[in-house]
Amino acid sequence: MTRRFSGIKPSGEMHLGNYAGAVRRWVDLQDDSIYCVVDLHAMTVPYEPAELTAETRRLAMLLLASGLDPERCILFVQSHVPLVAELTWVLNCIATVGELRRMTQFKEKGRGQESVSAGLLDYPVLMAADILLYDTDEVPVGEDQIQHVELTRDVATRFNHRFGDTLVVPKATVPPVGARVKDLQDPTAKMSKSVDSPQGTILVLDEPARITKKVKSAVTDSETEVRFDVGAKPGISNLLSLLSVATARPVPELEAEYGTGGYGTFKGAVAEALVEYLRPVRERYHELAADPGEVTRCLALGAEKAEAIASATMDRVRAATGLLPLR
Ligand code: TYM
Question: What distance in Å separates the CA atoms of residue 97 and residue 125, rounded to the nearest whole number?
Fold first, then answer.
């Protein structure tokens, strides 16, 4: 069996980029897989404690609503398995400050800040620990996380070279379409919860009317042809990708159908498809919200199963690195 592991940060609401780029695939590939709400990663930038608690629960509920089934996969909260912090320390002594400074996300998040936390620099090492702690073969992510998975591979390979074959070296997988969903108002930037672009970001829990409004006001271009060309037509290309993701139809087929029908008709079809794509998640979320005990039970079960895998890995890591056994 191929073991998959992936995570999502509880900061800001889950958006269409997270869903199309990652979560939807997690649901399709959930057997023998491990998915995690990475609350420790959300602490690397300033945040409100009460909000972190609420968002962690909400996100876990959204993942269940998306179709993750605790009978088939392991769903848990990162901090509930504290061994990840121990492995992070060990890997901190393998990763170099130089390679961490080169990470695009660190440069982007640190830009213009007077000071950043050491946690922000160390973020990819915590992510590597997540992945390596669970003997992961594949990491299903959106395109923006590939660099972090590459770093994980480098660190694991270096570890194995230094201490003997101990860690499974994972690889990233991205979806054929939807790996980089763009902001509807700025289709050259990725859709993101941290960017202040509420009109450009479709949230998974947005009501149908809101989704339609956002799609209808999406930035396009001054031509009239619906054609996929990221360089010349980033807005239309983004909408084509979204329509393709939501309808599971290939882009060329959509170009043939909507090519000359005008942007208005095309946007109407995109809005309708996205509403239907997200509708089951929103409806199930509201059902789950009525039973908060259920999510607590799922997460406790998930943490217990995750802990069993993690502790076996840490035993190997301790033995390989020369840490004195407790008994
Ligand atoms: P996060 O919370 O930013 O995003 C969760 C997932 O959503 C994907 N994603 C996108 N995909 C397509 N288009 C977009 N506009 C878009 N925006 C986000 C991300 O690629 C990701 O797959 N560092 C990670 C969380 C993490 C993790 C891990 C992931 C922590 N530990 C271990 C994999 C394995 C992050 O911040 O994701």
Answer: 11
Helix, strand, or coil here: 207?
Answer: coil
> Distance (Å, rounded) from C-alpha 204 to C-alpha 171?
27
- Residue 36 structure tokens: 């995690």
For ligand 1, residues with CB inside 6 Å are 5-9, 17-18, 21-22, 38, 41, 127, 130-131, 139, 141-142, 144-145, 148, 179-181, 190-192
Residues in the chain: 327
Instruction: Write the pLDDT tens digit of every residue in 78-118.
Output: 999 999 999 999 999 999 999 999 999 999 988 888 899 99
* CA 23 / ligand 1 centre spacing (Å): 9
* Structure tokens belonging to residue 8: 């999502």
Task: Check if the beta carbon of residue 73 is closer than 8 Å to that of residue 44.
Answer: no
0.90 exceeded by the pTM?
yes
In this structure, what are the phi and psi dihedrals at residue 325, rounded to the nearest 5 degrees?
A: -60, 150
Mutation probe of ligand 1 site: the residue of 4, 16, 18, 84 with most atoms within 8 A of C-beta: 18
Q: What confidence tier does 127 reach under pLDDT thresholds 50, 70, 90?
A: very high
Helix axes 292-321, 263-289, angle to 10 degrees: 90
What's the CATH number where 278 sits?
A: 1.10.240.10
Structure tokens at 125: 């090492």
Instruction: Please report, for the chain, how many H helices and E strands are present, in that order.
Output: 14, 5
Same domain, 57 and 167: yes
Q: Does residue 282 sit in the same domain as residue 263?
A: yes
User: Per the structure, how many domains does the chain have?
Assistant: 2
* In a domain? residue 90: yes
- Are the C-beta atoms of 170 and 136 separated by less than 8 Å? yes
